[in-house]
């Protein structure tokens, strides 16, 4: 009798009624679509699964995002897109009444949502803004960050105004590679004023709850490329998630994922959503996924079988390390276990 069976469980999409996807690094990188993403999402829609999108990128409106997706061949309307500016405006409304002047650091996506909610937008601290709302835009300049710093000079506990950031993603995938994200811009203002922003988007749970409510999801699955925002946020919201290795986080990050940011599924690209997901089988110190087997021997991680698929080796290695409850820096990990053979921008 074999030590392990090769049973497989259901596909990641079985039972899912709403598929929620991040955008940058999952559907596209810059203006170009990620390979296999569009056809996979259309296939899910053809199977009766509702598609929705959650994005931390605050530079564009829901309408412009929907048009971008439609240009790829995805049947997307503005109401299918949940944005971090929408989440930021909801937070702002809890603290500042409509009609107030708000200093904006960011682009059209943020300005449109603020104006729709009845706020007056300014770019100058001299206009006595009632709050600062900051989001990503590739055209944000030093002068924009300086105006935010001037407006936020007084701590909120001493009578200063609120500061809301749409998100704090450190990086953003672009067609030419990985670029600084809104987190770096928020950090610049933080360094100047010594204050922390209130964050509206992922990994905070409210944006996920808003999406679940909007789409009437009973069993949603969230697709993301980042552990620290997408997967952590989905877990905080009690939502199953799939990490796709087409964007920011790579196999080595998966192996080191903290407990609060571990995905339900790990896939190389979105085609694997339709494949039976191999069962994680553990016997004593050996973990097997598919025909890949990994053993934990004290501080050593040993590959007993690389298996026939790189993705199963990553899955086996991740689950073996996660099961120990120990941090990855306490292990001697073979380089083959985190060799990156997966597509990224």
CATH architecture of the largest domain: 3-Layer(aba) Sandwich
Task: Report helical residue fraction.
Answer: 25-40%
- Please state the structural category: alpha/beta
Q: Strand order across the biggest sheet?
A: 5-4-1-13-14-15
Total number of distinct structural domains: 3
- The CATH class assignment of the largest domain is Alpha Beta
The gyration radius over C-alpha positions equals: 22 Å
pLDDT average, as an integer? 94
Write up what this structure looks like.
The chain has helices at 37-46, 62-72, 84-93, 108-116, 142-151, 182-193, 205-215, 227-236, 251-255, 310-324, and strands at 18-21, 28-29, 32-33, 50-55, 81-83, 101-105, 120-122, 131-134, 163-165, 171-174, 177-180, 198-199, 220-224, 240-244, 265-267, 280-283, 286-289, 292-297, 300-305. The chain has 345 residues and is of the alpha/beta class. It folds into 3 domains: 15-56 and 202-277, Rossmann fold (3-Layer(aba) Sandwich); 85-199, Rossmann fold, CATH 3.40.50; 278-334, no CATH class. Mean pLDDT is 94; it is low at 1-6.
Describe the protein's topology:
Layout: E1 18-21, E2 28-29, E3 32-33, H1 37-46, E4 50-55, H2 62-72, E5 81-83, H3 84-93, E6 101-105, H4 108-116, E7 120-122, E8 131-134, H5 142-151, E9 163-165, E10 171-174, E11 177-180, H6 182-193, E12 198-199, H7 205-215, E13 220-224, H8 227-236, E14 240-244, H9 251-255, E15 265-267, E16 280-283, E17 286-289, E18 292-297, E19 300-305, H10 310-324
Parallel strand pairs: 1-4, 1-13, 4-5, 6-7, 6-8, 8-9, 9-12, 13-14, 14-15
Antiparallel strand pairs: 2-3, 10-11, 16-17, 17-18, 18-19
